Amino acid sequence: MSIKKVPTGHQQQASLPPPVPAPVNALRADMEAMGLGAPESAGSLLQVERAQKQAQRQRQQEEDEDTTMTTTNGADDDAPVLSIAKEKILEEVRAKEKTEKPVLSLVVVGHVDAGKSTLMGRVLHELGETSDKEILNYQRQSDKMGKGSFAYAWTFDAMDEERERGVTIDVAIDSFATPHRRFTLIDAPGHRDFIPNMISGAAQADTAILVVDGSSGGFEKGFEGGGQTREHAVLVRSLGVQQLVVAVNKLDAVRWAQSRFEAIREQLQPFLTQTGFQPAKVAYIPVGAMSGENLVSRSDEILKSWYEGPTLVEQLDSLDVPVRALEAPLRIPVSNVFKGQSATASGLAVSGRIESGIVQVGEKLAALPGDETGLVRALEVDGELVPYALAGSNATVFLSGIEANQLGVGSVLCPPSQMVPVVSSFAAQVIVFEPKYPITAGYAVELFHHSRDIPATIASLDAILDKASGQVTKAKPRMLTKGCSARIKVQLRNAASGGRSGAIPIEPFSINKNMGRVLFRRNGETVAAGIVLETLQ
Ligand code: GTP
Ligand code: MG
């Protein structure tokens, strides 16, 4: 896999990030878009305000601690011994904003075989991120296995099993740059068996490309019945993605017919709006991944007669960059743990997206759940060693003083002085999808939070809410059915036995949006998604 070497340093949009937590109106807008109703009319405004006050107090405490830290330099054993003051880093980041490209995380999703890996493999090649020699090599080797059509997909499908079967199994992370943006690219699997991997990838993304198969019958297979086009769209939206690029692929198979492209757009548009995507935030781009049509450029004879919009890469280049919560406490949910050597560093390493805050070399971090801390020995972003890394970037953290068995996929790294609550029970506001059986109290689910999935029970149904107003329409309902919005309590199932599996680090959405989103699945289908209102115990 190609990892492009890019200059270090990051930036976000020109304006400064808002203080955490999100203002109530922003929270409301986000929840309403997902059909979750307005939190205050659901009776939870108090909780939101309480959470905000708590965060404010925490911030005040942090500020006090920061001041202490700079003067006593690590006198408190828990306080990170920082070599660069946070203010200095922020100053540097603001200066770089003017000259460097902002970073976005992009997940590529869609039904199995829609052409996701081929599309992005080809994009990376067209952008010069992979060499002709690498592609030739993939072509020769995949031909030998009778899988010649997967040559570009091999850019991401690196495991033997993936190459033999011609399907993506695990997410692959890479990076590339367009004229005005840098991207962390997450190639997700489409096969339904690997949805947990897809969720782990999508949880790390700001934005998504939804690839659909435009060939005759191909779109329908993914969109109707048990196809993954719908489920993936719902999942990425539930995980916080608001901008979507729909790549209508394989149009070569329908002779680049405009009518086919329009028909697909007409079917997707109402569905995506209903899923919570604002129409203005969704772009539809006709493409041919195999031939490279309309990725970076268009050939005269193919799409030019009827399509005048942007190419896929032009569209990516103009995506909005979210404001990062740089001043919030550091949160790194771990999506990968490995021991060994990279090109630049060695030792126990974990990787994941920095959801908020700043991490720097020399900092002591707690790994939750658990009582262990480790020291950041080195940091790597896009294959380069960096002195610090910021919210929004995908980093590899090399740790010392902690063993591999003391943390795992789903652990959260945070400063020991600003820990994430580790709980076995929480209140959530959810939207119910299409469960085979109605949800009742005691309903068993798999709870998904970032890269973690853990057995849980919907312990109680507290209220059904009106989706538009958020008003309670029914208190203590007996069951939740398709499409309803509700307040529930969730209990982790192995809580009684204690240990790692019985509790997870999680925060209310009002305190940290990226740490407060949850999904619930049962028997291989996603039954509900929502946000954490309050941690309980
Ligand atoms: P999973 O990750 O397993 O879900 O699949 P994917 O969406 O990554 O699809 P992949 O890139 O592996 O491609 C699946 C098949 O579609 C391969 O045989 C590709 O050659 C084919 N394919 C991809 N793009 C195009 C295209 O533009 N035109 C045609 N005709 N076939 C394509
Ligand atoms: Mg793939």
UniProtKB/TrEMBL annotation:
Residues 47-58 have a biased composition (Low complexity). It is found in: Cytoplasm. GO terms for cellular component: cytosol; Dom34-Hbs1 complex. Residues 1-78 are annotated as: Disordered. CDD domains: EF1_alpha, HBS1-like_II, HBS1_C_III. Residues 101-324 form the Tr-type G domain. The keyword GTP-binding applies. PROSITE patterns: G_TR_1, G_TR_2. Component of the Dom34-Hbs1 complex, also named Pelota-HBS1L complex, composed of dom34 and hbs1. This is Elongation factor 1 alpha-like protein. The gene is HBS1.
